[in-house]
Specification:
Elements: H1 6-14, H2 32-41, E1 49-53, H3 59-68, E2 73-78, H4 81-93, E3 99-103, E4 116-121, E5 128-129, H5 130-134, E6 136-147, E7 155-162, E8 168-174, E9 176-178, E10 191-194, E11 200-205, H6 206-211, H7 213-227, E12 229-232, H8 241-251, E13 256-261, E14 266-272, E15 275-280, E16 286-291, H9 294-308, E17 317-324, E18 327-334, E19 350-352
Parallel strand pairs: 1-2, 1-4, 2-3, 4-6, 9-19
Antiparallel strand pairs: 5-18, 6-7, 7-8, 10-11, 11-13, 12-16, 13-14, 14-15, 15-16, 17-18
Helix pairs in contact: 1-3, 2-3
Length: about 350
């Protein structure tokens, strides 16, 4: 993991993680090092005004308050009033009077505290909300996990800049997985059911939306529950599942599908009306298959194309923003010159799906 800037290193030294994170009570958390690294990407300077979307434990709020200093201001908005009240008390005891905590609609930002020089979010949205951009100064940086396709669970971190004309543009994408914002978890799911043990199975695919929707998807899920089997591959050890997932997002092969098959780890791969090949997003070394062989062959062809291109990582992907109702959708496209093989850091995305310490 890259070293932190002197400013963030000093902030980490000044803020006690243990003052905020309630480990014994089961508070969901992300490693402090991850929180600090993402904040470092924002280049927060003394005197800036920062909007934080998602207060969590308050640890990240305290880091941001330390970085902006008394001449700056941090506004943190969260949907959970208990979080907000608890963190407000903690910050008050530390004398951080230049931090404001508020409970409300996180997608709406904090218009009464705008404009902001930096915005950071800790939960995945379906798009970059217009309110965040409208509340930004020209030149502001926005760092947020966002959906990168119309399929469920497929997202990544976006670093965007707001131009002098008030329009956002993407600078880069990076591997990160965060919990979805309230109301987002089921977006993109086209068919779902539970197995005999009560475990959830679902599929998300544009093919299903065109070829019969839920009924077709439920039939495929039934096939996978009844006849599905696990095979090794398509990746081998030390190949980056994050890099391959990014390639799938950017190339969007026919039948691209995300799924959950009775466990907590979602999968990605290819389906047809008569079969499926869905690899684990843990490390890509096992694939669930069912029905005819066409999806498995198609997935193998995609993997080979990725290898032939040098196994590019997320650095090969360019964020492309398109205006839509309520903001901007973000999609990943291959850069004109693909990046070299995925580095070690991309062998595992920053996975905060289980929670957030920030």
């Amino acid at each position: 993991m890259p070293s932190l800037s002197p400013a963030v290193t000093a902030a980490v030294a000044a803020v006690s993680e243990d003052d905020f994170v309630r480990r014994q009570e089961g508070t969901q958390s992300t490693a402090a090092a991850v929180t600090a690294r993402l904040i470092d990407m924002l280049d927060v300077q003394m005197g800036m005004r920062v909007l934080e979307v998602g207060t969590g434990s308050g640890y990240s709020t305290a880091l941001l308050a330390e970085l902006v200093g008394p001449s700056g201001h941090v506004t943190s908005v969260d949907v959970d009033a208990e979080h907000v009240d608890r963190v407000a008390g903690l910050l008050a005891r530390q004398g951080a009077s230049h931090a404001t905590l508020t409970c409300g609609d996180v997608l709406a930002g904090a218009p009464d505290q705008a404009p902001f020089d930096r915005i950071i979010a800790w939960a995945t949205a379906t798009h970059l909300p217009a309110a965040w951009v409208e509340q930004s100064n020209p030149g502001a940086l926005i760092l947020a996990p966002v959906a990168l396709t119309s399929l469920a669970k497929v997202g990544g971190g976006l670093l965007a800049v707001v131009g002098e004309d008030g329009q956002p543009s993407g600078r880069s994408l990076f591997p990160v997985r965060y919990v979805e914002m309230p109301g987002v978890a089921a977006v993109g799911i086209d068919a779902s059911r539970k197995d005999d043990e009560g475990q959830a199975w679902w599929l998300s695919s544009e093919r299903l939306r065109a070829d019969g929707g839920a009924q077709s998807g439920e039939e495929l899920l039934e096939l996978m529950i009844r006849d599905g089997r696990q095979v090794a591959g398509p990746l081998v050890q030390r190949e980056s599942v994050v890099g391959l997932t990014g390639w799938l997002m950017a190339t969007r092969p026919a039948g691209l599908t995300t799924a959950a098959l009775g466990d907590t780890r979602w999968r990605i791969g290819i389906t047809t009306a008569d079969g499926a090949a869905l690899m684990s997003t843990f490390d890509g070394t096992d694939t669930a298959i069912a029905g005819d062989d066409a999806p498995a062959f198609a997935l193998a062809e995609v993997v080979q194309a990725w290898r032939d291109a040098g196994k590019p990582g997320l650095g090969a992907l360019e964020p492309v923003l398109s205006s839509t109702e309520g903001g901007w959708t973000v999609r990943a496209e291959l850069r004109p010159t693909v990046a070299p093989a995925a580095d070690a850091e991309e062998n595992g995305a920053v996975d905060a799906h289980a929670g957030h310490q920030h």
